[in-house]
Design goal:
The protein has 7 helices and 45 strands. By secondary structure, it is mainly beta. The relative contact order is 0.07. It comes from Mucilaginibacter dorajii.
Amino acid sequence: MKRIVLLGVFIGFYTTLLAQPKQNFSAYLFTYFTGGKGGEHIRFALSNDGYHFRALNKNQPVLDAALISATGGVRDSHILRGADGKTFYMVATDMNTEKYGWGPDYAMVLLKSTDLVHWASTSIDITKTFNKFAGVNRVWAPQTIYDPQVNKYMIYWSMRFGEEADKIYYAYANKDFTGLETEPKQLFFKPDGGACIDGDIVYKDKKYYLFFKTEGSGAGIKIAVSDKLTSGYVLRDKYVQQTKDPVEGAGTFKLNNSNSYILMYDMYTQGKYQFTRTNDLEHFKLIDDEVSMNFHPRHGTIMPITAREAALLTARWETTEDVLLSAGNKQIKTINIVFNDAGHELYLPVKPGTNLRSFDPQFTLFPGVHISPATPRDFTKGAVSYSVSIGNKKPQVIKVTVEETHNPALTGYYADPEILYAQKTGKFYIYPTSDGFDGWSGNYFKAFSSADMVTWKDEGKILDLPKDVSWAKKNAWAPCIIEQKTENGFKYFYYFAAGQKIGVATASDPAGPFTDSGKPLLAQLPDGVKGGQQIDPDVFADPQTGKNYLYWGNGYMAVAELNADMVSLVPGTTKILTPYAHYNEGTYVFYRQGTYYFMWSENDTRSPDYSVHYGTSKSPYGPIQIPENNTVLTKDAAKGIYGTGHNSVIQVPGTDEWYIVYHRFNYPKGITMGDAAGFNREVCIDKMEFNSDGTIKPVIPTHSGIKPVHLKK
């Protein structure tokens, strides 16, 4: 009898496998939410290779949470292809933190579709469905897996009673996937009693691998392994995430036509995802450099799909704008692309040295999307017309202009630039704040070098707070640097803000790496100052006296003389120089023809009116005289340039030629981003000139930037 039962189970499983049509998977569907205001809805993105993803529907929801959930919000969506190969199941946390905060949360949403476009949904309140679970206050991160032993879909999720640790439970969905037909049972708990959430099960080589996030004693992603789906999981005592930052939302998928798997997870404190690759679900390699996305997902999952299925998705949610903004040629400054829907125009700014006589934008084309011409074109004579067709929609003709621009000067999001000409190498260097992190939360510094101030090379990280600094791990802001020639060669002193304190690091090369002194140089407000922050250092070598000074402050401007060791201040030399009430931050001091120039930024860096102003003095200790018109640099709304501030300047050696280096809001999106524009900034360079009386001429910010600077030999 026992043999007959086992044979029946095997035949049922085998029959199910045979019933599945053979699929030729050639693309990937990513389902996710974004968080923040209006972010708790289901969104979709596509990829042709599992590494480069593009959001559908302009990164707007494809399913409105208000229509499918009890709370009006959904998170942690998980998508699964059914055993029949053509039915799709999706589950999500029924949760609206924008309206209700972090709980209690009682429900999950079950969804079913046959085309990935139209979905039937049901919200299941665990506390109302099962009396035994009336005391539950968290129902989080459900996922679905097919159980061939019982020919049913098993849903598993993390759940908590009162203040107990979260455990992972499971139950079977009914035939219509509109409810749970079995009472939840415990699937897994953390042996040491800590919480475990965000379960993700992968079946490989006749074993089930349960990825989950641990909380309480230790935090990260671990794996438990079992021969059975519903029991017997043995914990591997090893974290598998490839970062020291907090993570959650593990999601695993197999690459098409490969033995490799991708493990991805949400680095929720950093506002980004991390991708790793593995062949054995035990050893994981970080592959962030191989991955790109034009959106910022939170806890989601990825499922391989066919070309036909991808075409259904593009026909429904792909737009002409989506296609054109996918231009992937590495010479394009992708964060500065401008699409004018009303004018049917696309503007592609490109890096210096791009061959415009034969240029291919390299648009990403998903199944169902076509664009012509498909070969390189000559853009030196003006715009080129492209025809874009999606599914059965009428083709649209768009005029595409490609132009070389030198602003922004650096590729990516950076701010608070300090510029240096290094005698040792004969090159220019920019040292910026690494930007693009929510709430200015970047924790490392980079350097960029150039022989002509137009083409810049990324020299990589020169100081990483988590690894290199013991006294601060966050808010790596606004560095400055000075070069000194010694008997033993050149030495570089790098002053930086971290954790609202100011430190100093040293190196023997302008490209680093730099070694921190081991303690902050400045850790408290100067005497008499009641508010503000210890940030924005500026180091200045007085050519008249040979003395060195450090300036700093937010809400106040302070100065102190540096000792000969350059890593300590001369006692009793600190002085407050705040020029007037409009002063905010970003002091920069330079000397020209007998005059000391003091520059600073006014307004908040999140304001479109963030701007550069100046005063002059006969001494590095002031007092500072304010010219009648002391605005050096401000916004140009007609050009879409806003938030121009926090600058440094550079004098081309052997000349009276000067340039101002500053940051602005990202163009063109910055002005639409609200406060987030203040931490999505980019570095620009424009020429700075003086009147015959020594006053500074107002600088007009440009997109074109400067021409290459050639040093006189």
